[in-house]
Amino acid sequence: MASKPLTGTKVFLMLVAFFGVVIGVNMTMMKLAIATLPGTDVDSPYAAGLTYDREISAAQDQAARKWKVNAHIERSTDGGAVLQVEARDASGQPMSGLKFGGRLERPTDKRADLAVELSEAGIGIYRGSAAAVAPGQWDLVIEGEARGTRVFLSRNRVILN
Question: InterPro entries under this entry (predicted)?
């Protein structure tokens, strides 16, 4: 059996094919990695930096109000979740007339975030639900507004089974 000689052209083509496969796999993996987890916490760090002083001032104003806001979230058997927020002022009186909203944010994937619309179910009690909430860790973000201005913000890590 006669074997063909190894020529420079064959070696060159083998090298091009090898590195072509390596570069192709790397490009595919890079594209998938960027598409699944972009690595940023905020869309614009510059804009977040500009609002930093306002966030500190809003947190100080919130602490000065001494409100007591308790949230309870429970996962239902159908895969949804029910969120209840109870808001009381510094003297312990229920507060009504506020507009509360909630968000369930996945710590690892912003695309899985869910908004929870809350409506006043009683004096100082706000309730809402979200459908198809996957089990696992979530960040529960609660925001309260009065006359179009955010007056309350809370972020807590919860585990839903």
Answer: FixH (IPR008620), FixH_proteobacterial (IPR018037)
124 within a domain of the structure (yes/no): yes
Q: Is residue 35 part of a domain?
A: no
Q: What is the pLDDT of residues 42-65, one digit of tens each?
A: 778 888 888 998 999 999 999 999
Side-chain half-sphere CA neighbours of 87 within 13 A = 28
CATH code for the domain in which residue 146 is found: 2.60.40.10
Domain that holds residue 81: 67-160
Tens of pLDDT, residue by residue over 24-45, are 999 999 999 888 766 667 778 8
The reply to whether 2 falls in a domain is no
The residue whose two tokens read 């969120």 is 83
Which string of DSSP letters, residue by residue, matches 87-118? Answer: EE-TTS-B--S-EEEEEEE-SS-GGG-EEEE-
Q: In whole angstroms, give the CA distance from residue 156 to residue 6.
A: 66
Q: How far apart are CA 61 and CA 55, in angstroms?
A: 10
pTM of the model: 0.70
Q: Alpha carbon 35 to chain centroid distance?
A: 16
